[in-house]
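Human:
Take a look at this sequence-structure pair and walk me through the tokens.
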Amino acid sequence: MEGFRVYLYDKNGNIIGIFLAPSQKKFEADKLKYCSEYREGENFISYTEIKNPILDKKTGELREMTISEQVQAGILILSDGQYLEGEEIKTVTKPNEWSVWDEDSHAWKVDNDLLNKKLEELREKALKDLAEAKSNFLNQPLEIEKNDKKYTFENNERNRNSLSLKMSLMWTLEQDKIEKVKVLNDKKMVEFIGLNRTELKVLAKKMQDILEIADVAEQMAVVGISRYNVEQMLELNVSDFFQN
């Protein structure tokens, strides 16, 4: 069985060695028997390991450093957001990415350079998201009714351009309808149906309304993005601007 441990340190806090004795009582009765290197007044005995030793000026004894002494000695490094209050380390949570720690006031303070950088990043991202949101809004599928059946016109740029060319040719040739307009039926299968002038005007009106709403929404969003503060930008969802 392992014996009673005795730690011997020099006056600078350096460990000289670890010695074993049957018990603390027997060790104290004859210190030199179990620790021949012990010198009264020159080195120090401890019955527990001292990880950060310091010589106490008042008692003359070697002891463990307090928290504040460890900080002063550079053994314990406080991170940003931490400060010492007595012998307790207090932690203040960082409120955002654009604040820096002020050691004197023990508070996080806004760094305008970081704030402006973050705001610029958020605005750049918002403008990219805006372009995607507008595209999604413009390309929303449109419902067509024909002979009491419902169809879906895939309202993407390619189909819009194709329909526009057909309508232009139809008006030029003074035709009454377009025979082949690509749509999806209720089973999501491709069909080609004929649409007359009245039906085409309804479809064109739907597309025009969407375009106008998208343009107005985009303008409002761009103004907002240029004016919003960083908190507002963090809460911003550009898709909210696009509502039918």
In short: Residues 67-110 form one domain. Residues 197-227 form the longest helix (31 residues). The longest strand covers residues 177-184.
